Structures are given as structure tokens and as C-alpha cells.
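I am still learning, so would you mind making up any protein sequence you like and the C-alpha cells describing how it folds?
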Amino acid sequence: MKKLLAILLGACLLLGVMTGCGGNAEDAVTVQKVSDITSQGSVGLVNRYAGIVVSGETATVKKGDKKVLETYVKEGDFVTEGDVLFCYDNEAMELQLSKLLLELEGYENTISNAEEDIPNLERQRAAAPAAQQLTYSLQIQELQANVREATYNKGLKEREIENLQEALEDTDVRAPISGRVMSVKNTENTGASSGYGGDTSGSDAYITIMDMTTYQVKGTINELNVGTLSEGMNVLIRSRLDESVTWSGVLDSIDWETKVQSNNSPYYGGGGGNEMTSSSKYPFYVKLSDVTGLILGQHVYIEPDYGQQEVREGLWLPEYYIVDADSSPYVWAANGRDRLEKRGVSLGEYDAERGEYQVISGLKESDYIAFPMDGLTAGMHTQVYEDNSGYVSGGNSGGFGSGAAPMPPTLVSDGNASDGDAPIEAPDESLFGDPAEIEAPAEDAVVPETAPAEDAAANAEGSVA
């Protein structure tokens, strides 16, 4: 994978040089500050998924086929474990109990009468002529079958009566956990009100309660990316507002039994895709070791934890910037006078997980280096790629039109790039107009912010994914 990325990045830069259209005699080579390259770390090799903070526990309360007399809570109420949520209609249950007792008495009478009739028939059969004994035998067998059936039904009714009597002793149904009431089903129709708990119209839950004190993070994984996540792996939760703010967690479960509906963005509409061509997505849940600073409903990023938060000593450079690493390692660096030079470096440890070498000497974070593509020679003009401004400076003036090749941005996959159907947030209406009039983008694509200079690398990223 890392070798593939190296080839991709080189292709991006080479494309930028070949398509330059400046009027100068010599094209410049784009160089980027070492500190900007190393600050990207290994994020470019990590899949990233969209996530949302949800409750750590949700309880559902069912009412069965009993009639509810009164409901004491409504959606949005906060309840404590043991609080009464609703009560059953005693009158209806008492009538049901009377009916069951009558049915039980009927089975008992059937058994009693048959047990009295069978001995009489046996005596009559013994005294009857041989030709009539078969008739008595059939009558006896029929009564014996009736006794067995009535005995079985009697046992069923006794259990029903016992359960109903227990229900009559306590008609109040209490909250199993403390939390917020997210939905209360309307008993007059099949609909249900819902909050964070979602629509419960398709379930038999009468009341849904969400624990507001414990959080977990819910994400979705595409069926084409199932190999990138596994239960029990360590993950990082990253804030969307400030990516330096993170939380640690463990992927607790992947729900393969529940498919996530597509096109559920609150900003964009559109019909669903063809079920034979679109891939399925499934929810997964992350348990957090600490929830400080998180709020329910907050949108975050989820990424596997490969140690990218670990602080390492020294300068670590991606291996694809280093030429001839095994024998005489060197990099292509700017010499401070807008010229390219071949600079030898001393290497230390190699991080195989991230594909990075520790540079002991020969290079500083303030230096500028170029991607080692074919055709580079010492003495070529250099120009600096400004990551935040979208233009280049130094060497030939004229920006990208002078053969400048923008350096690759951080390559971040959203975990669903294979079919590009991830939800994204709507653009600012004040800048782009009404979001409803904008064509819906792919549903699950998490698009990193990039300067105009990064278009070539960003397009290349999508093709690899």
C-alpha cells in the first residue's frame, strides 16, 4: 500500500511538471518545507470514518397486548430508574381473569364428568353381549382422550391465570434505567414519536429511554472496506473542529444484522441507488475510555490507532522522499538560492508500520525538499509550495503556470471511498446559496479541505480508492 502511494504521489508531481505552461526557458521544481511534510505523519495511510456520539445504553419498555390505562411520561422527560412510566387498565385485566377462571372451571368439569362416566361404561361393557362390547370400548376411549386434552388445556389456563394475578398485584411499569425518554409510541395508531433514539414505529417498544451519562461513538463501514476494521482494535476519535483534539477507544462491535439506510443526510435529498449495484453499509460502535469534552450528537472522525499520536524524538521522513536508502541515502533539497541540490543524509531507525526513516543528520525541519521523480538534476530552479495559500513562490514567478507541481496533500480515506456514498455536511449557505439547490455529493465521502493547488493529488487519491 505504501509503495503504491509513493508511485501515486510521484505521478501527481510529474503530471504537474509536464502540464506547466509558463513562458520561461526553464521549468522550476516544486519543493515543500520538511516540517510541513513531517507534520502530516502517517495520517495519509489511515482510513477515516464519519462518526456521531450516541448514548452508551438504550432501554426499551414493551407493553405487550395489555391495555394501558395512563402514561405518566412524555418524550423529552428525564426519569430515574424505578420511576413509574405507565400503568395498565385493571378493569380490563379483571374481566380477563374472570374469563380465564370460567374456562378453567369448564376444563375441570370435563375431567370430573369423564372420570365418573368411564367406570360406569366399563361395568356396562363387562355385562353386555360380545357384539355390543366394541361400542362401549369406543365410548371409553373417546372420554379418555377428552380427559387428556382437558388436562393439557387446564395447565395452560392455570399459568395464564397465575401471570395475570401477578400483573394485577402491580399494574405499574417502571423505568429500567435512568435517562431521557426518547420516544413514546402512540397507542391510537402505529406511529411513534422519536428523538435521538430514532423512529420506533417498526418495533414493539412502547417507551424508549436513553442513558445520557455514558457515551459511545457510532460509525458506518462499507461492505467493500470490511477488512480495514475489526472488533477489539484500538481507534482514535478526532474532533472535526480541531483535529488535534482526540479521544481513545476500542471498537466494541460491528452490527452485521442491521443495514444503514443511504441518503439520510439532513441537507441533501435524492432517491436510493440500485440495490444490485450499490454496496451495503453497517453500523459499528466504539467504547471510549474518556468522554470529557464530548456532547451527545457531536460529529467526529474515527480512525484506526496505529500510534500516529505517539511523539517520537528526532526527524522522521516518509521513505518515498529518500533515494537509495539502503546504500548512499540522499534527498533532493533546495540550496537556499532557488536551486536544487543532491544532499546526502544519515539515517537511523526505520518505522515499517508508518514507512518512515529517522534522519539523524543532513536535513533540518526548516529545509525544503522535492519529491524524487525522474528527470531531477542538480542546479534546477526551485519554487516553494505554499500549502495554505494555494500558490507557489520562489524561482520562476507565475505560480502553477510555470511548471510547478503541487506537493501531495495528506491522503485521507473516508473508509467508504470505494463507492463514494458517504454523507458530508452542507456548505455554508451564505457563500454558496441554498443547499437544497446544490447537487447531492456522494453520501459517505469525508472530504479533507484542500487548497486549489492540491486538485491533482486529490483527484489521484479518489482513483486509487
About this structure: Residues 90-170 form one domain. Residues 184 and 207 are 5 Å apart (CA to CA). Confidence is low (pLDDT under 50) at residues 13-25, 189-202, 263-272, 388-465. The two ends are 11 Å apart (CA to CA).
